[in-house]
Amino acid sequence: MANKGNKKRRQFSLEEKMKVVEAVDSGKRKGDVAKEFGITPSTLSTFLKDRAKFEEKVREASVGPQRKRMRNALYDDIDKAVFAWFQEIHAKNILVTGSVIRKKALNLANMLGYDNFQASVGWLNRFRDRHGIALKAVCREDSDRLMNGLGIDKVNEWHAGEIIKLIADYSPDDIFNADETGVFFQLLPQHTLAAKGDHCRGGKKAKQRLTALFCCNASGTEKMRPLIVGRSANPQCLKNVHSLPCDYRANQWAWMTQDLFNEWLLQMDARMKQAERRILLLIDNCSAHSMLPRLERIQVGYLPSNCTAVLQPLNLGIIHTMKMLYRSCLLKQILLKLNSSEDQRKVDIKQAIDMIAAAWWSVKQSTVVTCWQKAGIVPMELTDSDKETAASETDTAVEKLWHSVAIATCVPNEVKFQDFVTADDDLTISQELIDTEVIQNTVADENTDEAGSEDEGEVSLPQQPKITITEAISSVQKLRWFLSTCVGVPDTIFGQLNGIDDYLMRRVTQTLVDSKITDFLQTK
Question: Which residues bind DNA (predicted)?
């Protein structure tokens, strides 16, 4: 009996606990799961009761999956500050030793007002264990070997080695690239020179920008729903709006953050799990991508630092094409307003979201495939005719459009359409922390991801009246009549109009049917 009482208690890591929970989720009987993992029924019940805590810790990557306890650090604010600094440094592939971490901890502790804190070796070991730092370095696919300043020889070496290993088990349909870009969504042609080269890390212009995340596969057959980050969480133009052609989030600077990127990543992972797919996702090393959550169906591969200009498909023309289409749409709106009595109002967030999403969906498959070929990641053949169509179809029409608007709005002669398209290419898309900001973020009462106020920086436009479904159906009928008076309308346009009409009619008939059933039941 004495031996039984002194039996050593077994401890489980987070990874082991999650495996137990997943085994129950798979449909196995709890008794069988307990026997399989050698635990008692009461221990299994405790795991299931605490599953939300386990999932949150793993999802936030705040502790390593091998860790067995979830106690907070004695100096919790110092721990958070050092970890925030470490994430930023690690994202830049800068080598960090234990002594460097200890010195930084002492420095940050002093800034936080702690005189008695000692960054001992024991503290360092506990810090590394709490955050699974050694484990995170392994998960980077050895990208730390590919340091800053890579030349063309190193790029070729990566093409010949690293990427071949990454893509070996995936088809082009299952290899994806994701990247962010900044957009001055209200930029007018005559202000192009003032915006060129602006990083927009704050100030007045922060109210006029968005950050957009795009993702597509190597075969060009699948483009993911865009994620757009603005500054206002509840802009007036989105009041009563329940459906958008993208996902919309907001924070103080309209930047991509780790929380937003990880949320997007987990949603994508859930979709792949539901579709029973496994994919490879190639991303760069920006700070928002530095600490990823636990993923089941997505393998993440990091592109070498400072080489995205030649290795990242989205940077090799896909995002540029999206911006060209977006700016073209802006020019058309400006030209229409110049030729009417309508006031020259600025674009609001809703209009910008609609146009950015429309531009993204309009990027052709041939353009996507060509950019993946330029990156040299996936070898695919594209016919010469496919390569030529993207340039020849739009260039002439867009140049004429630009010329007309440029003359009417007094744009300087040296400003070309391509300058207008690339004016916001240098926008900062994620936060880079310095020590003072690390401390501010640690001790602040409000989260730095907190969105701006509802109306701050938003264009003041009259509120749009609510449109009834009957009015919407009437508008479709008017549009159908207008198109019937035009010459040479493609059949696809009428087909799209029929789809809209069918959707509206199904909604209104379902509403009428439901109301009739309700009336019938009330009379019984």
Answer: 30-50
Distance of alpha carbon 267 from the chain centroid: 11
Task: Say which DSSP state 236 is in.
Answer: G
Residue 362: helix, strand or coil by DSSP? Answer: helix
What the block records as the tokens of 451 is: 């969105």
pTM given for the model = 0.65
- Rg over alpha carbons for the chain, rounded to the nearest Å, is 27
Q: Give the chain's mean pLDDT.
A: 77
Number of Cβ within 10 Å of residue 14's Cβ equals: 22
Domain 155-378+396-422 class, CATH top level? alpha beta
At the topology level, CATH places domain 76-141 in Arc Repressor Mutant, subunit A (1.10.10)
Cα angle at 192 between 288 and 203, to 5 degrees?
A: 50
User: 8 — phi, psi (to 5°)?
Assistant: -65, 135
Average the pLDDT over 497-501 and give the result: 83
CA geometry: angle 351, 399, 413, nearest 5 deg: 100
Contacts of 55 (CB under 8 A, 6+ apart): 18
Give mean pLDDT, residues 331-336.
86
Q: Decide: helix, strand or coil at residue 484.
A: helix
Check residue 141 and give its pLDDT: 34
Domain residue ranges of the chain, discontinuous segments joined by +: 14-60, 76-141, 155-378+396-422
Please say if the pLDDT value at position 155 is more than 70.
Answer: no
Higher pLDDT, 163 or 12: 163
Shared fold status for 14-60 and 76-141: yes
The dihedrals phi and psi of 213, each to the nearest 5 degrees, come to -105, 125
Q: Which residues contact 97 (CB under 8 A, 6 or more apart)?
A: none
Alpha-helical runs (H) found in 236-379 = 258-274, 308-311, 318-338, 349-362, 365-375
What's the CATH code, domain 14-60? 1.10.10
**In the structure encoding, which two tokens stand for residue 520, read together?**
């019938």
Beta strands 209-217; 279-283: pairing state:
unpaired
